[in-house]
Design brief:
alpha/beta, six-stranded parallel beta sheet, globular
Amino acid sequence: MVPEIETPGHVQAALAAYPELGVRHRSVDVWTRWGINQNVLNAEESTVTFFTNVLDEVLDLFPSTFIGVGGDECPRDQWIADGHTQERMRELNLRDEADLQTWFTRRLDDHLTKAGRRLFGWDEILEGDLAPGATVASWRGMTGAVAAARRGHDVVACPDDQVYLNYRQSESPDEPIPVSIPLTLQDAYAFEPVPPELTPDEAKHILGGQACIWTVIADSPRTVDYLAFPRLCAVAEALWGPAERDFAEFSARLEHHLTRLDAIGVEYRTADGPKPWQRRPGIPGRPASRQQRDAYFAGLVKNIQT
């Protein structure tokens, strides 16, 4: 098991308990919505110490080599607008807010490295320098996987456009709480964790792949079943099965496996689409076309250092 302590964004739960960790030092409520929260950590030395202390407690609980520190979806607006943060950046001789996030991540990275562990973070951490042992989860497509491997960092490939199982499964308006682009069973089966443009030596840095499912849009365990299966079966075969794959042959075997899922009560999505109780009429979600997704993510990954 790999634990993750999110920094420096996605931290409103921490700020609700410890307002002094935030840029504004204000009391806030625990975040109860999905999406990107604007509240982030400040860059005080005391805040870094707080999180290295938290990580020490995590190290006592988890023997895993890899320790997650997040790094994803951290808005920098509060840092830009805050005079004290700007003064702190000048003290640290940092050029901009991206450098500030890199500085924060590197402090945690150094702490974990000294403890004999390895930092694990989302591909936003590639926007700055990393310790040699840092490992990257490439989620915004495969740009991060290519960049990290070429820089000599190990990678777990988890591209959203191939293995984010909370994404909708078809263009049908009956898909429950539709999110982003359609990812079909065949799309999941086609997942290739090793980017073809890597050299053999670079490809050795791809440790494997990971499917992700963010249950913030799943309103019950039954909905998680619907989102995960049978696409998770396809991902498993893509990662652990033979290099040569045949979707038609897999589909025939899957029919037998679905009877096993039936027997244990897994409410998977059938090839015909959602059953009446799996639909969520009237909940629009956040669907997007592949063109919209590609344009949006191109902007997100432009600062990754190659």
